[in-house]
Amino acid sequence: MKEKEIVLLGSTGSIGTQALEVARLHNIKIKALSAGKNLELLVKQALEFSPEYVCIADESRYHDLKEALGGKGFKLLCGKEGLCETAALPCDTTVNAIVGMAGFAPTMSAINAGNGIALANKETLVVGGEIITRLVKEKGIRLLPIDSEHSAIFQSLMGSGENKPRKIILTASGGPFRGYTSERLRTVTKEQALKHPNWDMGAKITIDSATMMNKGLELIEAVWLFDVLPEQVEIVVHPQSILHSAVEFEDGSVIGQLGVPDMRIPIQLALTYPTRFPSCAKTLSLFDTALTFEKPDEKAFPCIGLARAALQKGGNMPCIMNRANELAVEMFLKDKIKFYEIPEKISFAMERVSYTKDISPEIIYNTETETESLMRQ
Description:
single chain, 377 residues, alpha/beta, 46% helix
């Protein structure tokens, strides 16, 4: 493989650390690393991979970063401006593994710079899908999904040519509370919510999986990534997480991508596309597991319906929903609200934050601010 050079945003998180495993395996050059607050791991990564640039998003830790890496040949950056500057550095691919809405502006910067995008930050498309997809087309760049589900859909569409999907089958594990009733969910604990049965992920996405908001966000993401209508996306609970998603075509054929639940597989494809290379992930044995499928219980898990409603409303409503979810999850993780209150907080914000059908980066940032102000009252 011709040596590739990447900028990695969110290098200390679950996706970021696994992306570095892939880079290490295939000698992918790291031009820049960024992290939010985990300075210690960021420094360790910088010393191993020798990037040209290192950025810490938390400005309060910039002095510590200079103390650790100053005089060692690194160009050091910090804050939101530094993050956007890092994202726009010339490279083959900017990998966005930042958690939450903080990933939107760096994605915009990378696209405007003409970089290819490997996107694990689903919020970028949730809050600004119309803007991002238009900009990607204008710039003529490639945007590849890292989420296992969207990578599976992308792979299922390979070679389909002009054949458009009739339906996208978006699979969900069901999370740790699959089969729970609304009543039972009123007593679940944070420790239970953080124990995902199949995937090893960061705290925020693990809670999103437990509420099934993660699937709502992925529904919105799929609509923008694959240019389909919301009603063409069917959510199917698949507890084993072996079929990562599938596509049904007009002739009734269903093509899906199967594999063990290991994020290094979709990460590697996004970094080495269009070539496939040996992976450090385990191979799948169909003899070891039965595959089952069921409908999601949207009464017990109303976040799916909230996401559909936000998508239907359009404008800045997905942004309101997304930011409210981020803040509600934060409250839950800090033991300020109960698990069942997460969708209640989201619904509260969707009813009260100023709605507009228009969408622009400025509207997105203003909506984020207003939603946060309401939620923190």
